[in-house]
Every structure is written in C-alpha cells, then in structure tokens.
Design goal:
The protein is built from three helices and three strands. It is α+β, with helices and mostly antiparallel strands and 70 residues long. It has a three-stranded antiparallel sheet, covered by helices on one side. β2 and β3 form a beta hairpin. It is globular and about 25 Å long. The model has no long low-confidence stretch (mean pLDDT 83).
Length: 70
C-alpha cells in the first residue's frame, strides 16, 4: 500500500519507527536527513529504476525481508 507523507523527514521517521516498510525519495535529501536526524537504523538500500529522478529506497536495517531484496 502506498502511503503519502507530508515531508521526506516524516516518511523516513515512519520507516525508522517501523510504521512503514520503506520510503522512496531523492538520494541527496534522504542521505542528508538520515545523517542530520540521527536515523542510524536506516540505510539507503537500492535504486528504484527511475534514474531521471535519482530516487532510492530507504529501509530499516532490521527489516530483513525488504533489506535482503536489495
């Protein structure tokens, strides 16, 4: 199920707190927000195939099912 969020940080926090399985967004934004907000349980796992947008998928490290897909 796709769940819209109001901001990239809201999406990343939802993944970090295990409220969502993944967040898709811009690599630069995701990387910056993970570092700035100490979301150390998150990792940029893979590209999405949408190269023109440079979108990546961020997942919680402990979610082995999704993490191992990438």
């Amino acid at each position: 199920k796709i769940q819209p969020v109001k901001s990239p940080l809201e999406g990343l926090k939802a993944v970090s707190f295990n409220e969502m399985d993944a967040y898709v967004g811009n690599l630069g934004v995701i990387t910056h927000l993970i570092q700035k907000n100490n979301l150390n349980n998150l990792k940029v796992a893979s590209g999405t195939g949408f190269d023109s947008q440079q979108l990546k998928i961020g997942v919680i490290i402990l979610n082995e099912l999704i993490f191992n897909l990438f």
